[in-house]
Design a protein that fits this description.
alpha+beta, 488 residues, 16 helices, 6-stranded antiparallel β-sheet
Length: 488
């Protein structure tokens, strides 16, 4: 509030809550929680500026949901979801509240959403609260993904609540303030389809089109073009995940955003050493959402969305099914296009030929089973163009790798593109052991220093900096397998 004139009064946040206003019956009001002593521990000033918000407009009590600002919505959204393949007809925001919507400085509508803000009608016996560790994990992961240029929800702030909550042990409670283009999910459509309320499915589709894909409203069949746009957005997103070694961990339909943003960072993690079967989630016993299966599961989830829309695609069931099937079948080609686009850029290949696809396929063969760090492999490739072949040090056995590297250098043969490669191949990612250390220090010792340093490093993942070598490397190879838990 420095340099404000005497008598200056901070303006109210300009909420424009279309979901609450236009979709009656799609949510329930929430009750403000009563936390002992909310305290702000993180606030994203850069993001706040984009939203046209000043920190002083959002107190710790406001960011916890205890004292919502004037004009806030304070509602819990209804949705269903296929969870690990099984359908749950009523999930909803069981531990979250939509605080409201604002228009950012670029004219884009954004949700302000509180996670861990207490019980709602959808809590199903839970306490609706969140522990500090998972709140900090989502804050860190969302901001890291944003810096990596991957569509994502982001974190505006985090507060501790002053109370302890019971999970696997006693944990400090916290609330995350999350920003998203919206919180519409595939599960939002499933909720009303399961109840046979096709008028509400249509209403929700109209709202989603107007909010996210307005160009579809001008076409001959807006609902078909909307479905196509969502498929395209998800193909683009998952291709990004795969190119960076990200494992979401719980790709249930209630965690698939219509906007194409990464949402709900629960048991997620980044793959260190390349293994297509990588699973981090403690609850994914059968590897349903393993790294290599993410495109397959995205396709499956989108088919569930298409099922909900059949009656509004065309009045004749057979015609509607054929329409939906054709557009769903396009996912693989779209995904492959975006994935190749990403992977060739990582290899410094900008005008790919058919032979380059073979080069890429052979690359995956040489890194498989070699304990090769996925991130460092691509980062060090650029160095090989300048005569430094330390990328080979990553391999248990580098004989085949050396032959492949020779082929790749001959194909690229341009040291000038090293900088271009470094611009798409990060040197810093949220290394699992570093994330764990930072979260444990914060949760167990009230020490945020490791977290804040890691957050700062990840804010600029492509620029190598001095004295940060500890952030480049994975955990020792003999470390225990990393596991994540969905704790929020």
């Amino acid at each position: 509030m420095a340099n404000k004139p005497i008598g200056y009064h901070l303006p109210l946040i300009k909420f424009d809550n279309t979901y609450m206003r236009d979709l009656a019956g799609f949510y329930t009001p929430t009750i403000s929680p009563n936390f002992p002593s909310p305290e702000k521990i993180l606030f994203n000033h850069e993001l706040a500026a984009e939203l046209g918000i000043e920190e002083s407009q959002l107190s710790a009590a406001a960011l916890s949901g205890q004292e919502p600002p004037e004009g806030a919505a304070m509602i819990a959204m209804a949705y269903a979801g296929h969870q690990f393949g099984g359908f749950s007809p009523s999930l909803g925001d069981g531990r979250a509240t939509l605080l409201g919507e604002v228009i950012d400085r670029n004219g884009a509508r954004k949700d302000i959403h509180l996670k861990g803000s207490g019980r709602t009608e959808y809590s199903r016996g839970g306490d609706g609260k969140a522990a500090l560790g998972p709140v900090l994990r989502e804050y860190l992961m969302g901001e890291a993904m944003h810096a990596l240029n991957i569509p994502t929800t982001r974190a505006l702030g985090a507060v501790t609540t002053g109370e302890n909550i019971l999970r696997d042990s006693i944990k400090p409670g916290a609330v995350l303030t999350r920003i998203a283009s919206s919180h519409l999910r595939v599960g939002s459509f499933e909720y009303f389809h399961a109840r046979g309320e096709m008028d509400k499915v249509r209403q929700l589709a109209d709202y989603a089109i107007a909010r996210h894909y307005p160009e579809a409203s001008q076409t001959e069949n807006p609902y078909l073009d909307f479905l196509s746009a969502v498929i395209n957005a998800q193909a683009y997103l998952v291709a990004k995940w795969m190119s960076i070694g990200f494992v979401h961990g719980v790709m249930n339909t209630d965690n698939v955003a219509i906007s194409g943003e990464t949402i709900d960072y629960g048991p997620c993690a980044f793959m260190d050493r390349y293994d297509p079967k990588t699973v981090f989630s403690s609850i994914d016993a059968h590897g349903r959402y393993a790294y290599e299966k993410q495109p397959i599961m995205a396709h499956w989830n989108l088919a569930r969305l298409a099922e909900t829309m059949l009656p509004i695609l065309h009045p004749e069931e057979e015609v509607a099914f054929k329409m939906a099937n054709n557009v769903i079948a396009s996912f693989q080609d779209r995904y492959t296009y975006y994935w190749l686009q990403n992977m060739f850029a990582k290899l410094g290949i900008y005008e790919p030929t058919p032979e380059d696809s073979t080069l890429l396929a052979d690359m995956y063969e040489i890194i498989k089973g070699q304990n090769v760090d996925f991130t460092l492999f691509f980062r060090r490739l650029a160095d090989a163009l300048e005569g430094n072949d330390h990328v080979l040090d990553l391999f248990d056995d580098d004989e085949l790798a050396a032959l492949w590297l020779e082929r790749w250098i001959k194909r690229v043969a341009d040291a000038d593109i090293a900088a271009d490669m470094d611009a798409v191949n990060p040197i810093y990612i949220p290394r699992n052991h570093l994330v764990n250390d930072a979260l444990e220090a914060a949760e167990n010792n009230q020490d945020m220093s490791k977290f804040n340093q890691l957050l700062d490093v990840l804010s600029d993942p492509y620029t190598e900096r001095e004295d940060l070598s500890e952030f480049e490397n994975p955990a020792p190879i003999d470390a225990e397998p990393f596991r994540t838990f969905c704790g929020t």
